[in-house]
Amino acid sequence: MNNELVPQPSWWKRNWKWVVPVGGCFSIIVIAIIAIGSIFYGVTNAIEDSQPYEYALEKINAEEDLINAFGSPIEKDGMVQGSWNYTNGKKSANMVIPISGPKGKGKLFVEATGEDDDWTYNVIRVEIDDSETFDIMENESLEQF
What we know:
By secondary structure, the protein is of the alpha+beta class.
């Protein structure tokens, strides 16, 4: 009688039938997550680099009433919501920016339209915890910059 041991196939030869489909699906899922994350990051950066976003934050940091309510400095505190569109030289921005300072939190609302490099600000308003509203644009006619 022959008592030789039969060599066992390698791990790859035993498991390739399930490793290939699972590994392929996992790779597709990882690539999709990276693509969605990249798009989200790019859109968020475009909104945060826009002139209406920067102008509105600059404007509220110059308002004495808001500095008394929030403290100084007033900064972005979370994820920006809204849209920023550019079509054939015409632009529009509609944003809700969560803001905070040392004394409190609130939301900054910005609505603006523009053409080429000029922007017209229709709304720059701050709401503090749904109780108090500061309308930055109420004392000024439509601002153009």
